[in-house]
Design brief:
It is built from five helices and 32 strands. The strands form nine sheets. It has a five-stranded antiparallel sheet with strand order 28-3-32-31-30. Strands 4-5-6-7 form a four-stranded antiparallel sheet. Helices cover 11% and strands 40% of the residues. A hairpin with a 4-residue loop joins strand 17 and strand 18. The protein is mainly beta. Residues 15-58 are annotated as: Disordered. InterPro entries: CUL4-DDB1_E3_ligase_receptor, WD40/YVTN_repeat-like_dom_sf, WD40_repeat_dom_sf. Residues 47-58 have a biased composition (Low complexity). This is WD40 repeat-like protein.
Amino acid sequence: MPKELPGFYFDAEKNRYFPSSSKPDGKARSSKPHLQEVRATNHQHTPKPLSLPKSLSPTCHRSPSVWHAIQRSRLAKHQRERIAATHQVMSAQLAATRAYQAIPVPVYPGQTLTAFAAGAYEGKVWSLAGDSYGVIHAFDPSPISDFLSVPEHTFQHSWTRAYQLDSHISSICSSDSRWVATSFSSSILIHDLPSNRTVGLSPSPHLACDIWTSNLRNRSLVLGVRQHALLMQDLESLRDARRLETQSDVFALHQEESLVYTGSRNGSIRRFDTRTRAPGLTLLSEEFTKSSNSITYLNVIKDWQLLVSTIRGTIEIFDVRYLQGSRPLLALLGHVNSYQPKLPHAITPSQSHFFAAGLDGRIRGWSLLTGEPLSCSSTSPFSIMEIPGHQTHAVDTPTSLFAVMFEELITSLEITQVRHELCLFATSGSGLHRFILGRP
């Protein structure tokens, strides 16, 4: 007679102990469902069986890896093992995202959306969308309690044309209770939410010409412009604005406490100390400049890792403490880019997962702990959902984040945390697309 062990049961047929949580209820099911059952399940948008082949179900909500990760988390003896198992569960949940809405934004005929930002302030969520005509569309603030359940038809008709700049909106960024929008022809719009006050700035061509990107941290604003970056430590004043010389157009920016990182068209990465007037320190030597591999995204994660995305489609993580001639610690494979400097990226607030829009109209995601993709790349053709560039009506249907292909270029990605849920927004054509991450 086998002994009873707490948390385990004895299988007489296999003559082994197994965790009690894995004990089958009633008659065991076949581990390989028939293809007809799989297609019927897909048609009804219900959770797929555990043992579906990856080629048919690239984003299974309850895949074997999730089950094993949960078991490892329960049985782990060391903190490191529990952290890894918990991260794997989180990755599987993100890969299972199917909550999707497509919301048309009332742009003028022939115009497209070029930038988007959203945030929460005083119990409400605000949203801004900029277009190629220079219009900034504002969505009526929604209570946080209602934002995740707003019907698509309500979302569609709640936009107003709030502001007009002189050329297409090149970026929208936010920090705390402020947001900043820029046009490519160097107009800047600053809005303070507590006072509901808006300030417009027009830097001289010497300071800023062709604004590619922007980054806001508290009251410090950095603009990526032609041949240099422009640092404004006092957000609303150009009086003490400082040029950060890069000798090349700046496509990517990141700010830390007193540091500014710039990524340029010529592939150079520089780090400027805002406490001094010293020139920027060149990082990674000739890692990207020797092949003119333009930098399209920069971020410092976990305080010591530099995340770099390039125009050639490479996404790599370097050790920020040893950047001279260092090799990447991790490479995120599968990103598609070959010439587009404005393909957007987004990172989760916990800095654990990363998303990038590809030149092929697909969104891909990775774990920043392991480098593994959140969805297998070999998605079957019948599971791909093609999204037209110009949305004429709202759509609210369960669709996998990684099985969506946009007809037009994806122009912005934004991750916004609303209470305990994460929303990923994407703009393409005239449509705004929202995925609630982790919700099946």
